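WARN no homologs supplied; continuing
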Amino acid sequence: MGERIFEYILTVREKTISARWQFHDADGVKIENETAEQDIESDPLRTQTIKILRDWLSRWGVLSRLRETYEGLPVPGTFKVLGEHLYRLVFTGDVATAFDRVYDAASDQGETLRVVLNFELSEEQGPDELAGYPWEFLYRPGPDGFFIAAQTRFVLSRWVALGPGRAKMPEDPPPLRVWFFMLTPALAGFEAEHQELLMTFSEIGDYRGALRPRLHPRLTEEKIRAELREADDPPHIIHVVAVCRTARPNGEGKFEIAFQDDRGRVVWRDQDTLVGLLAEAIRPGWTPRMVVLHLCETTAVDYSATFGNLAPKLAREKFPAVLAMQYPLPAAQAKRFTSSFYQLLAEGWQIGDAVQHAREAFHHAADADRLFGAPVLYLQTVDGRLVRTANAGPAVTPADVLPAVPRDSAALIDALWRTAIVEAPEPEVGARVAQEVRDTAWPAETAHWERIIRQWWYAEDDVQAVQHLYRAMIRLVAPEPGGAA
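OK structure emitted
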């Protein structure tokens, strides 16, 4: 028996909609059909309400930061009202009836329903068109109403139709190669977030050899281009962390991205610069499987900068999958998202399922956090896995079988010194770190030693090259003998 697919594709045009679907009934019989094209029932009041709530939502980050001072400032029902308006805008008539039928079949059989929003819009249409709406807040109304993006029994994605049908996502043997390009600028207000994100990405594990992360902090345009062009083992996933601002003057719908020059100065480039730069990674015989656009917190006066509108441009460049944040992802939440998302991909989860679980983790019952609607997933292929298996074998000694280490300060210092000599990637690095171990005035409480070691790690020019060394040192000073970093 072939794979049982439960899928509903809603095609949205400038003024009309239609749907097609497929599912299996209780007897295993495949059923597929489509609706006729019908007009979008968009009254001016509903359209204006959606746009106002969308703009209100873009300010949510600032409101959330003021929550401690002004209790109850965010209005919890905002997402639900916006989501219901979005739902009623397109789920009407035969389109709505078809969705209910497929949803009921998937629910009765305990299957995941893949909801695909297909936007047949021209490249010239601006962000205020239908594709620019925050569809990730779709809310199915009713006594048991729910957000589609916050339910793991669904997978919600978008699709830019560039030709007939969708290809299958290529699967490769592990490890899954993920490159993190951190473009966060050396500007006041961003340094703390840069350091926290640097820590987050540096700590991503290899998940028993199934994942191979590589960190590129603050490279120039030229160095990024060279890395993407010349890599012997090009990345499956390119994860870009950046700060944006609205383009001025007359920059409605467009934004600029902060790069840095070879002197470390901030240089603002238009959004197409990033698109062209990432396109350099596409070469004969190889296309990265996925681009992740990770938006950092913006300034309190610039609410409209978003990566959501950049995703379709990358889809048109033939990247099979693009995951773009339409709202800033603070460093603390980024740690939760990346650790979960990349672990699931390394374990062989399909992209859509991994994204949906990340969304669900962001969703709060109090309905007071917009982050579950931040990830916008464009899938140009049928949803699929990036790696064939997650069981590539252990790459490091599991923490539970590491030998216990002595806990007195003198013995720990000796153990750190030996680790620096043995585990360093180069003798010069080992000698330098070993000398730091000897010269440091270590606190009486060894619980504080990990912080010192991490400060050394993040001060290195290439944090990725020395990660094995510093992780070994952190394991030595962990509160529990043999504890993992």
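The CA atoms of residues 79 and 137 lie 7 Å apart.
OK
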